[in-house]
UniProtKB/TrEMBL annotation:
Family label: Belongs to the CPA3 antiporters (TC 2.A.63) subunit B family.
Domain MrpA C-terminal/MbhD positions: 12-74
PANTHER family the UniProt entry points to: NA(+)/H(+) ANTIPORTER SUBUNIT B, NA(+)_H(+) ANTIPORTER SUBUNIT B
UniProt-recorded name of the protein: Multisubunit sodium/proton antiporter, MrpB subunit
Positions of transmembrane segments: 43-74, 86-105, 151-170, 190-209, 221-241, 253-274, 294-318
The Na+/H+ antiporter MnhB subunit-related protein domain, residue ranges: 191-313
Compartment(s) of residence: Cell membrane
Residue ranges constituting the MrpA C-terminal/MbhE domain according to the UniProt record: 115-180
Annotated organism of origin: Microbulbifer yueqingensis
Keywords, ordered alphabetically: Cell membrane, Membrane, Transmembrane, Transmembrane helix
Amino acid sequence: MDLLLDLALLSLLLLTAVSIAWTRDMFAAAMLTGIYGLLSASFFMTMGAVDVAFTEAAVGAGISPLLILATLALCGRNQKADPPRAMLALCLVGAVGALLIAATLDMPAFGDPGAPAHIHVAPHYIGESFAEIGIPNVVTSVLASYRAFDTLGEVVVIFTAGLGVLSLLLALREQQHPIRALSAPHPQHLVLRLVAKVLIPPILIYALYVQFHGEYGPGGGFQAGVIFAVGFILYALVFGLDAVKRVAGHGVVQFLAALGVLIYGSVGLLGMATGKNFLDYSALAADPVSGQHLGIIVIELGVGITVAAVMMLVFYLFSEQLQRGLEDGSGKELTSGRAG
């Protein structure tokens, strides 16, 4: 049964990917991209990677299609025919695909018990992580403690990506006239407002659950941050960007994006100040295991704050750019269906 489910999901993934590459309707491609993210999340669930499935469902099936639609409102719905560029893109994708397939030939077979990871690394993590770290979730132990420096790099990458989007879109904003934020739907859309009021509180509560339950089950800062951002983005879509900015404006979100990285890095520096290694949490408490537990909670909080803030910041910037484009008339192609 599991094999049939995996084959069905992989077939749907392949069909969706081909459809995305084949269609020239960018709106259809955006919707198919969301479907692809949802199918990917389902496939990760069947593989037991619940943490990755959380993130893929929120980002791949939620936030990413929304940002793609905002971009389409500026550049148009239909793709222009450009055979030379399409052929160049096809050759590039084919070359990269061939390299990836060639690289897999040197990898051990999937599930091979003799693979180096299963012989040298996995036995220590599985057998010793609870005694060394003190939490039952081995995935969290690996991500937040054993390879905490690598996870810090991932958080810095997310923060840097947010700064990049901020720099690019703010530069465009300075060259154009001021805008008003995206307005809320008409007051007659009572169904949207009521559904949002019912859904948003459970979304935020679930984000907090995922944040502080990551030591015992699937979850952690990355997943919680994305889910938390989704709640605020849904609020902005239904009640308007001005409404959500009264709670968390540009300045607050930018501050929080930097604060999360600062919290993470400060934990590492605190370990060094007490004579331990960078990001060695055992120095945070008299008992090394308690120190590990405390350190993981704090750095996961920093991760969640940065991820949520960067997601919200990117949404703010794209929404403002979309409204500016609509006011300039550059978004008419999407609403009318004409070629961009």
